Amino acid sequence: KGKFMDTFKVLVDEIEAGDKAAMPPNAVKWVREMVEYNVPGGKLNRGLAVVEGFRQLRRGVLKESELFRACALGWCIEWLQAFFLVADDIMDASITRRGQPCWYKVPKVEMKACNDCILLEAHIYKIIKTHFGSDPFYTELLELFHEVTWQTSSGQLLDLITESEQRDSGGGDLERYTYDVHRSIVVWKTAFYSFYLPVACAMMLAGITDKAAYKRAEDICIKMGEYFQVQDDYLDCYGDPEVIGKIGTDIEDSKCSWLVVTALTRADESQKALLQEHYGKSDPASVAKVKALYVELDVKGAFEAYEKKSYEEITALINAEKVLPHGLFLFLLNKIYKRSK
Amino acid sequence: KGKFMDTFKVLVDEIEAGDKAAMPPNAVKWVREMVEYNVPGGKLNRGLAVVEGFRQLRRGVLKESELFRACALGWCIEWLQAFFLVADDIMDASITRRGQPCWYKVPKVEMKACNDCILLEAHIYKIIKTHFGSDPFYTELLELFHEVTWQTSSGQLLDLITESEQRDSGGGDLERYTYDVHRSIVVWKTAFYSFYLPVACAMMLAGITDKAAYKRAEDICIKMGEYFQVQDDYLDCYGDPEVIGKIGTDIEDSKCSWLVVTALTRADESQKALLQEHYGKSDPASVAKVKALYVELDVKGAFEAYEKKSYEEITALINAEKVLPHGLFLFLLNKIYKRSK
Ligand SMILES: [Mg+2]
Ligand SMILES: [Mg+2]
Ligand SMILES: [Mg+2]
Ligand SMILES: [Mg+2]
Ligand SMILES: [Mg+2]
Ligand SMILES: [Mg+2]
User: Fold this and answer.
1) With contact defined as beta carbons under 8 Å apart, do A234 and A246 qualify?
2) Of the bound ligands, which one is closest to the alpha carbon of residue B162?
3) Which pLDDT does position B171 carry in this prediction?
4) CB nearest to A115's CB, from B24, B122, B153
């Protein structure tokens, strides 16, 4: 992980060197500050997953140069994530991110954050060109990032219009929240870039060219991503705020959470009416009523059943894999199974 | 040009077909509406320049399939422009664009426009993959769009921070407005994507692989782009609002315009003080004082001299070109020379 952070420094320096040839010092300084503010502050799970996945594919120790390349590609995912998060915070009108003000909330930044997103994305292709431009998989790697960018922004769109249709209908008509809608949002918005992308990057680094292998990896990763997001929804309501680092507000925000979808499928007419009435209201009494209904309908029990079933299905998919090492997926699964944060 | 619009319809249909496989109908509909609102409403000069440039390189008539490919690639530039303009309007807090409300000003859209930018950009790589994915220049074409995207957003950054530093200094210190600053903003923000990109696209379509030829084309295009933007600055003040379709506000907006830079280089201390005092104020009396100073300093004459010199330099560069057909550049130059809109 120290090595991973060292690689970040190398990459920022390279970007800065390119900027210096093109821009005056105030712009060069801006870009460095913007990158340092937005890229490295997260948990780095996605970036580190490239390194760990590559290690699994190589079944052991990596050469120094291989490790550097895996780190560099891992950082591309962190850059991609930063690009999406900066934009997401603008769109969600969020206030803080990773314990500091959202970038667009920094007084001198404001809407310049829109352009900074574009720059962050452009950096990805600079890094890829510099470090993988002469690899045989270069073009496929570009296509992978293009595809995942499109998938993730399509998922964002779905999320945004589902939410705004709900709001515009005056909070009525929770019927639009179904498992199908929940699953599409989750798969497109999160699963591709958080689970499939790191695994596919590791596979490319390892020289895998069989398209069918990527497809099988995708199927497994999508299932993990779905499970991961259901956990996220669960922890928003039942997690320990001390542990997850925030106080969940999915009920207040009228989110299309797995919990409310489950409640809706289990509720009778009067319970549905109660949800219609109280879901998406910010007063604590309404939130308490929703939570009480979750207890009544044993949504927690439903989650535990889902978790068990999901774990079994993912494990079965992994065990059915004949070519890729199971460790490539198991290390990810172990990281998220029964997580409390 | 009818053919060009026909190609747009094909491309939107292709994108929609991809969306349908991935998203529910409300999202599919959103994407079509968003694309139709933002992509085709401009003058289409950049897109058409790919077609015309390709025709020049082929010295004559194009096959139907070649024409379609040139149109499709031209549309990629129009998509890129739409992506930048949607973001630019958010950042500039603009109200209208091409005679309709800016996309982010449409009530149901608002900040979702940030994500729509990302989608517009993602479409470029879908179109390129579909129509040029098996061409020998595919990877170079991807790199060209990556590079130009980075250049343009770097130019935007420069423009944004120059403007906000000026504003934060309380409108004082116009000294930061120099020909160098003006030139970097213009070259990076406009010239690469508006002039070099269409020409380079046409050259790729024509199968040109010599890197030196691209470099020479870039030099010519950058000079044309610079000239084009100086004209833009000139027309903002001296153009006929009926003809250019808007009332210029560069003086009120304290823009780093070629006119004010020229005035600053020609002004004595008391004239500089007058500019410091009145440039960037929105009251008509201040604007009139600035315009009167422009007359006193014969900024118009300076523009005419610049125009003549610039035209001669560009023509000389074109005439020195031994390999590429001069028509590739002359048709662009003729379009902009002594333009009144
Ligand atoms: Mg958010
Ligand atoms: Mg969001
Ligand atoms: Mg959540
Ligand atoms: Mg603007
Ligand atoms: Mg602007
Ligand atoms: Mg202008």
Assistant:
1) no
2) 5
3) 62
4) B153
Structure-block tokens of residue A285? 């009494």
User: Cα–Cα distances in Å, from B301 out to A275, B154, B308?
Assistant: 72, 32, 11
Cross-strand partners of A101: A96
Strands (E), chain B: 96-97, 100-101
Residue B139's pLDDT is what? 98
> Is the pLDDT at A171 greater than 80, yes or no?
no
Residue A191 has pLDDT above 70, yes or no: yes
Does residue A17 belong to the interface with chain B, where contact is any CB pair within 8 Å?
no
Cite the beta strand spans of chain A per DSSP E: 96-97, 100-101
Structure tokens given for A35 = 């990158």
CB atoms within 10 A of CB A272: 16
Whether A142 has its CB under 8 Å from any CB of chain B: the answer is: yes
Distance between CA atoms of residues B275 and B294, nearest Å: 10
pTM: 0.96
Which of the residues of B are catalytic?
43, 83, 88, 92, 97, 159, 189, 228, 232-233
At B172, the pLDDT band (50, 70, 90 cuts) reads low
Alpha-carbon span B134 to B168, nearest angstrom = 50
User: CA–CA separation, A148 vs A197, rounded Å?
Assistant: 7
Rounded-to-integer distance, Cα A223 and Cα A219, Å:
6
- Residue B126 near chain A (CB below 8 Å): yes
ipTM: 0.96
